Amino acid sequence: MSLQRLRRDHGDTDREKRFLAAHAAMHDRIYAYFRRRTANAAAAEDLCAEVFRIAWEKSAAADSLTVMVMFGVARNVLRNHYRSVARAGDLILALHAERPEIPEGVDSPVHEALEQLSPDDKEVLLLTYWDGFTSSEVSNLLNTSATAVRMRLHRARKALGLLLQEQPEPQPEGARS
Fold it and tell me: Which of the listed residues 50, 69, 98 is the one where a domain comes to its end?
């Protein structure tokens, strides 16, 4: 084994020791910091993990992982999280604004049938027909093959058709049953 390799291995060991010491000393405090400022425990865990991912990168440059550095990173991660949540909220509002308006209290047969489909069937139908994606684009979004998307789309259309056939015919106003 070469001297350079020994030094590099020793450096990696020092890096791991610095990181593990920082993690042991600060994990609970950083998690509590996020837990008090986020909606749920899962978000706090994800943000805490992001802080320690960044800390691992910083430990490669032999940066000191002091409490102040770690909480500085945590503040930046939290700011990014808040921006992300705001963007997601804006996107949801924009999507609702683009959604075709259905008068309150009136459900179209198609909307009712869509709500009865499985989430996977509904997703592939909406991505294809509402959002206008091709099967290869949907396959990229769903991380599956285009062939699988076409098969799922076929099954979803068939299921939607059956649900629409089962629905009673709408009665014109003033008609007697």
Answer: 98
Cβ proximity of 85 and 76 under 8 Å: no
Q: Containing domain of residue 158, as a range?
A: 109-166
User: How many structural domains comprise the chain?
Assistant: 2
> What percentage of the chain carries pLDDT values higher than 90?
32
pTM above 0.85, yes or no: no
Residues of the chain above pLDDT 70, percent: 80
Q: How far is CA 15 from CA 72, 76, 104, in A?
A: 20, 23, 61
Q: 61 and 144: one domain?
A: no
In angstroms, the Cα distances linking 104 to 10, 101, 147, 169, 174 are 68, 9, 39, 20, 21
Q: How confident is the model at residue 65 (pLDDT cuts 50, 70, 90)?
A: confident
Please spell the DSSP secondary structure of 4-54, one letter per residue.
HHHHHHHHHHHHHHHHHHHHHHHHHHHHHHHHHHSSSHHHHHHHHHHHHHH
* Inside any domain, residue 128: yes
Q: Taking residues 40-44, what's their average pLDDT?
A: 93
